Amino acid sequence: MLELSEFHLLATFFGSFLAAWLSTWALCHAGHSFSFGHDRSEGVQKFHVKPTSRLGGVAIASGLCTGAGALALLAPNSEATFNTLWFLLASAPVWLGGLLEDFTHRVGPTLRLVLATVSAVWLFGALGVAVTRTDVWPIDLILLIPGAMLSVTLLVVVGFTHSVNIIDGFHGLACGLGIITVSGLSFMAWRVGDTMLLQMCLLSLAAMLGFFVFNWPSGGIFLGDSGAYLIGFWVVELGLLLAMRNPSISPMAPVVAGILPLIETLFSMYRRKFIRQHPVNHPDGLHLHTLVYRRLLFNPLAHITSTQKNTANSKVGPYFWFPAAALNTLACLFMQNTWAQLALMLTYLAMYIWLYRALVHFKAPKLLAIRR
Fold first, then answer.
1. Of 347, 346, 331, 322, which is closest to residue 184 (Cα–Cα)?
2. Each residue's pLDDT tens digit, 273-323
């Protein structure tokens, strides 16, 4: 297959960014004139102050499709074109399920997880994208069992895809973390000379950036379920593909690059099941990002304007972006060392638990609090 040039990289990047930017702009303006696709304002996980479109997934999909189309025109026989088109096709089920939920609010999490499984199986069958190794010998032994590789792959892909939807709820939080994660994957791909993977990372990065400029800090549009699931699916599949194609990269490095959604999901399941005795899929307002908002940024007893409340909403993201960026940097520096990646995981988990306990018991350092 043909190699990609720098022109192909730049052309598809800017094409994807421009398409996502224009689509997001159009959706923002349409949202002011029409009420379809608006997010609900009630619920334990709702913190916005005005009706807002949650069709950001349409804009991101537009960016991905435009970038893929440009790539197909410029390098029709390239491996990047082949893989990108398969990624688009495979992501259709989980994206459509999220989009239907954005419009109707009637698609339950179980059906969305089933559709995420369909997407994961599709890409597993088409390109063989799977968890082939972890460099952690007990898990690698399990992967040798017939059928275990597919089972573990589905668990990882579906779990991470859903986890991005869990952390979505504040301006720019989920999309910003997606941008940081894909930036880390892009660096790893560039460092080992994997131009094909770099192209796919840049294409998805451009689509997210085109949406992000409207999503943060103003909150002019939300990702919605379609956007969160689409970002989650692309990010985790890119991470798996990167580790598969490049044996020199620790398979734990992509995990560290996107670890916050995973920790948030696993800790939420533990908290709901064993501490609160609730079903693991029961929504609540006790996620770490929610506690940051309520305990560090927004004082519910204060009389503030809608604009000030919206500003407090936009400040949640940076609390998580900066640690994520630092962790990504370290993951890239030690991308060939599995033991270093495991140490980073444990360090981040310890920091997460410490901050969560401090917020629950109103003992967070005053340096972190900027409440009005």
1. 331
2. 878 777 776 777 788 998 998 888 876 666 677 777 888 888 999 999 999
pLDDT in tens, 26-58: 998 876 656 655 555 554 444 555 678 889 999
Q: Over the stretch 160-216, which tens digit does the pLDDT of each residue have?
A: 999 999 998 899 999 999 999 999 999 999 999 999 999 999 999 999 999 999 999
The rounded distance, in Å, linking the Cα atoms of 322 and 326 is 6
- State the burial class of residue 217 (Cβ atoms within 10 Å of its Cβ: 0-12, 13-18, 19+): middle
Long-range contacts (CB closer than 8 Å, 24 or more residues apart) made by 364-371: 364/295, 364/296, 368/296, 368/319, 369/295, 369/296, 369/297, 370/296, 370/297, 370/315, 371/295, 371/296, 371/297, 371/298, 371/299, 371/302
Element (H, E) at 233: helix 224-245
Which position has the token pair 């998805």?
A: 204
**C-alpha to C-alpha distances, 358 to 140, 283, 288, 292, nearest whole angstrom:** 36, 22, 11, 10
Looking at the DSSP bridge assignments, the partners of residue 38 are: 53
Looking at residue 36, its amino acid is F
Length of the chain counted residue by residue: 372
- Answer for the pair 233, 157: CB distance below 8 angstroms, yes or no: yes
CB 13 within 8 A of CB 209: no
What's the rounded Cα separation, in Å, for the pair 181 and 258?
Answer: 5
Query: 53: which strand partners?
Result: 38
